[in-house]
Amino acid sequence: MKSSVSTWSRWAWLAGLLAAPIIIVTFLISLTNDVSMIQRCTTALILMVMVIGLHVFSGNSGVVSFGSVAFAMIAAFTSALITIPADKKPSLFPDMPDFLNWLLSFTVPVPLGILISVAFTAVIALLVGVPLVRLSGLAAGIGTLAFLVVVQVVVTKWKAVTRGESTMVGVPKETTLWWALGAVVLVIAIAALYQVTRRGRRLIATREDDKAAMSIGISIPIERLWGWVASCSIAAFGGALYGHYIATFSAQTFSIALTFFIIAMLVIGGLGSLTGAVVGVIVVQVLAEVLRTVETQGIGPIPQIDAPGLTEMVLALILLLVLIARPAGITGGREITSWVKGRTSKASRDVDPEVAQ
Amino acid sequence: MNPQYLVDAIGTGALYSLMTLGLALVFSVMGLMNFAYGQLVMIGGFSIILLRSQPWWLLILGTILVVVFVSLLMERLAFRPVRNATAMTMLVTSFALAQFLQQLARVAFGANPKPLEQFSELSVQYEVAGLIISRQIILTLVTTILVLIGLALLLRKTNIGIQLRASTEDVGMAALVGIKSNRVIAAAFVISGTIAAIVAILFFATRTNVSWSSGESIVLIAFVGAVIGGLGSMVGAALGGFLMGFVYTMLNALLPMELRVFADAFLYTLVIVVLLIRPGGLIAAKGVRV
């Protein structure tokens, strides 16, 4: 009984300490009534859902994945297809293939649409996960990257269903700041629960020492598959929310560039900890927004600078400097609980080097 | 099947195998997948534009010097500090660097592609046994074979090449027996930069413009080619790159019209299948960290 009490308290501490500041800041931002501020905050929160999604697999298993954006894309398009009002569908999808014609006849409310699309994406994640989780290291990276390219090509070229380059339009725009906040709190709770309970601890064990993990009876493919499906479902959740936020999107929205941006946020925050995922998004997003403001209107003594690409260039340079200064990321892969409670989190990466050898 | 496709497929394959070699060499020495490699080719493209009016030997030499210089700079400023970090950190570092160089080119040369005057002497075509073969394809094939031979000689016969191969086997052990890691890694970046410059010349010889985003697709092909060929093995990298170019061209030629737009999807599905059957690549090097 004692261990289960400490598990729940670890969960509550981790999820609470991460969610509380985000809730407070979001409330403060909502009080400003500044439309552009609220937009930026909403975007950051949706990105946070996707980054936490990636953390659940890559952070806990140590296996790199480039595939999470592919699942976000599948969910965004699926949810769009079932939530666009039925009377608009025939003109938007005149060439819908016969076997998908039933999609045109109905419309579901957006929350249900998101739920269905996440479930559908989870099934796809399970199907492609069974072979993909057998790969590790760079082979896993390339395997998932190849999957992303395949999904991108199909979504771009299968015009009858996805509208290809003419972009998805008429998607109900319903994601608000509060939806995004709720989503972040929910996925923080899920991700924290996963990594303090048995299922997640097993996956973390395979990351720390695969042979030792196998020797105590942990099946690496099975644990990775659990993490993979959970991770892809969270990414799908983020993708569906994003689709209902921007309302107009195409395969280009879910690009390889977005993939790397998400990975960069995770690594800069500190790969291996949920805190790192949250911190990475906040740091990179705040930086990006400050730079974007300089480019469009200037801040204080800094005049407005008109050079397309300058924002991205300076952002990349700062990210580079952060990585050089702190290769293990800002948090060093440690959880927030390890500072607050003054003890080293067991989920952290800093294993005694001699034991690790 | 029209055998003309074979000629084109072999030409593309040869170019891709060169691209892959440059990336794979650095990986085998320091375990770094250098995403900024494609940007080296892009920078090579811009230096071709700047040197376009010069004699051909100056154009080639100048481009190689520029690209090698940037390659060395990359190693010294960005990759040396993260050399002992995890593979993921190195990967993201190279991604950030790629992004930086790309946006720098966008700021410096503008967002619109810069026109490149055609090399008319390269588009001369010969007809051999009913096949049309352009000078560009001949040049690509000859250069690829020369680079492969040159690289093999360099790695087997020269002192630095032997040190390079020793470091590929085991960096720590090589350092213990007195091989200076910094020198060897710098050498790898010089060779990788030289190859990137050669790729730039062959690649842009058939293009009409150079854009800040030109490097992206190149590094993707090289990255995938290196992994399916077999990481840490130079022969594997050359083979993997060749197959990427060859299979892609053939898919584009042979798929039925309505499926042709999905050629990339077929190619990358094949990549996944190859990885599942041989996770270490077609020619897996011994003891390489996969």
Describe the fold and architecture.
- In chain A, α3 packs antiparallel against α5 (110-132) and α8 (177-196) packs across α9 (198-208).
- Mean pLDDT of chain A is 87; it is low at 343-357.
- The longest helix of chain A is centred in the first third of the chain and has 31 residues, at 2-32.
- Chain A is 71% helix and 0% strand.
- Chain A has one domain.
- Chain A has 16 helices and no strands.
- Chain A has helices at 2-32, 35-61, 68-83, 89-92, 110-132, 137-157, 159-162, 177-196, 198-208, 210-215, 220-246, 256-269, 274-296, 310-325, 336-340, 353-356.
- Chain A is an all-alpha fold.
- In chain B, α2 (37-50) packs antiparallel against α3, α3 (56-79) packs across α8 and α10 packs antiparallel against α12.
- Chains A and B meet through α6, α12 and α14 of A and α4, α9 and α12 of B.
Summarize the structure.
By secondary structure, chain A is mainly α. Chain A contains 16 helices and no strands.
Topology pattern of chain A, helix = H, strand = E:
HHHHHHHHHHHHHHHH
Structural class of chain A: mainly alpha
Counted beta strands of chain B: 4
Structural class of chain B: mainly alpha
- Count all strands of chain A and give the number: 0
Gyration radius of chain A, to the nearest Å?
A: 21 Å
Mean pLDDT of chain B: 87
Topology (elements, then pairings):
The complex is a heterodimer of chains A (357) and B (290).
Chain A: H1 2-32, H2 35-61, H3 68-83, H4 89-92, H5 110-132, H6 137-157, H7 159-162, H8 177-196, H9 198-208, H10 210-215, H11 220-246, H12 256-269, H13 274-296, H14 310-325, H15 336-340, H16 353-356
Helix pairs in contact in A: 1-8, 2-8, 2-11, 2-12, 2-13, 3-5, 3-6, 3-11, 5-11, 8-9, 8-11, 9-11, 12-13, 13-14
Chain B: H1 4-30, H2 37-50, H3 56-79, H4 87-109, E1 114-115, E2 125-128, E3 131-134, H5 135-157, H6 159-169, H7 171-176, H8 181-204, E4 209-210, H9 215-229, H10 234-254, H11 257-260, H12 263-277
Antiparallel strand pairs in B: 1-4, 2-3
